Amino acid sequence: MRAMAKQGKPHSAETTAPTAGRADFFPNLPDLQLADHFLIAMPSMLDPVFGGTVVYLCEHNSDGALGMIINRPTDMTMGVLFERLELSLEIGTQEMSRSGKPVLFGGPVQVERGFVLHAPRERYSSSLVVSSDVVLTTSRDVLEQAAAGDGPDRLIITLGCAGWSAGQLEEEILRNGWLTVKADPSILFEVPIEERFTAAMHLLGFDPSDLAGEAGHA
């Protein structure tokens, strides 16, 4: 894992609606603050990378947005990742339980990098405090502590992330690509991966079957 750096070209999801000027769509862009929110993909989302996903947004500002898909597992487990990083796993109940959990596909940007979302603890070499409940770390030290049984109590690991340049995410939301809702950390850390989409929808008060093509603000 490497320290956080500027992303490459963002991967922007596609939707069915036509494009229009961002200034016309969102005259008050500075007022839209979506860090620590979930993005829930709408049926109009055509991009197969993002269809059916929930994204946890870690950063959102005038320069763009950064987040991780939280409901798409890879074939790699945390135990295998620790082995590849040559980290010795302490034999304890919590560590053994974690070893079988899947590493997630976080998005199509910088897929060779690891991103760790975890409960607050001490500060690591490269961390971003997203909220009082969630920290994003990209440095190896958090995994070293987790493998040794001395890391955060709650964490998920993704490979890759999702990125948007200035105004892209706002445009996709208006084009009915995403619903947005304040994140619930229990969905990140406790709800099974396959249930996270439905759980995120329940935060809005309805089921996935209720999805329609209306613009997504909550």
Task: Show the helix and strand layout.
Elements: H1 22-25, E1 37-41, E2 54-61, E3 64-69, E4 73-77, H2 78-84, H3 93-99, E5 102-105, E6 109-118, E7 127-129, E8 135-137, H4 141-147, E9 155-165, H5 168-174, E10 178-182, H6 185-189, H7 196-203
Parallel strand pairs: 5-9
Antiparallel strand pairs: 1-2, 1-10, 2-3, 3-9, 4-5, 6-8, 6-9, 7-8
Short description:
This protein is α+β, with helices and mostly antiparallel strands.
Key phrases:
alpha+beta, 2 domains, disordered N terminus
What does this 3D model show about the protein?
By secondary structure, the chain is of the alpha+beta class. It has two domains: 99 residues, VC0467-like, CATH 3.40.1740.10; 88 residues, Alpha-Beta Plaits. Helices cover 21% and strands 28% of the residues. The chain is built from seven helices and ten strands. Strands 1, 2, 3, 4, 5, 6, 7, 8, 9 and 10 form a ten-stranded mixed sheet that branches. The radius of gyration is 17 Å and the shape is globular.
Indicate the CATH architecture of the largest domain: 3-Layer(aba) Sandwich
Tell me the distance between the termini: 34 Å
Average pLDDT, rounded to a whole number, is 83
Uncertain stretches = 1-10, 14-27
Name of the top-level CATH class of the largest domain: Alpha Beta
Provide the domain count. 2
* CATH superfamily descriptor of the largest domain: VC0467-like
Mass-distribution shape: globular
Please give the largest β-sheet. 10 strands, mixed
Q: Report the total helices.
A: 7
CATH fold assignment of the largest domain:
VC0467-like
Gyration radius over CA? 17 Å
Multimeric status of the protein: single chain
**What is the helix content?**
10-25%
Q: Proportion of β residues?
A: 25-35%
H/E topology pattern: HEEEEHHEEEEHEHEHH
Please give the number of β-strands.
10
